[in-house]
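Duplicate of #3305? Posting structure anyway:
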């Protein structure tokens, strides 16, 4: 009986089958990662706080907009003012004892609390202040006074995949947490 060769046709076919299986596994894992990433990006919220001035109807509105493609689920809101931190929404902050002396008229508001979901391409009017002529001017001055005295906010939110972000007045874009 002769010596058996290591590279027999059976072994070559077996090794090729194993190699093809490994390459298929690598491609499958890569495709799965790409699909998961695409799925996360297709539900990514993008919150932005806007202040709108309407001089025709005499009001100023602070609006929380979701420019993303998925719902934004609020995790918490913090307002900082004069080195103090308040865990409340904008309307409650404006109605607090601290600002009653400025007698700002709140025309409308909506709560922004933990668990609130803001759908994609939707907004939520956090607070609308102003009123006829003088009240509108007073509200504008009041908001400028807030900014001068260290007003800042932080809103933490997440996507349906629990990816988390934070927006702040002092930062231009949401930051991932």
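Output from current build:
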């Amino acid at each position: 009986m002769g010596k058996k060769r290591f590279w027999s046709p059976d072994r070559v076919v077996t090794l090729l089958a194993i190699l093809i299986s490994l390459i298929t596994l690598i491609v499958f894992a890569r495709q799965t990662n790409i699909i998961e990433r695409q799925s996360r990006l297709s539900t990514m919220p993008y919150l932005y706080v806007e202040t709108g001035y309407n001089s025709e109807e005499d009001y100023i509105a602070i609006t929380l907009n979701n420019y993303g493609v998925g719902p934004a689920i609020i995790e918490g809101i913090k307002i900082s003012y004069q080195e103090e931190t308040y865990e409340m929404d904008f309307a409650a902050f404006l109605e607090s004892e601290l600002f009653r002396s400025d007698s700002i008229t709140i025309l409308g508001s909506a709560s922004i609390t933990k668990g609130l979901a803001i759908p994609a391409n939707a907004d939520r009017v956090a607070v609308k202040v102003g009123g006829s002529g003088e009240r509108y001017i007073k509200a504008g001055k009041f908001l400028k006074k807030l900014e001068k005295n260290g007003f800042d906010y932080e809103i933490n939110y997440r996507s349906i995949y629990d990816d988390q972000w934070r927006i702040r007045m002092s930062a231009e874009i949401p930051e991932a947490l």
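Confirmed duplicate; merging threads. The chain has a mean pLDDT of 84. The longest helix spans residues 9-41.
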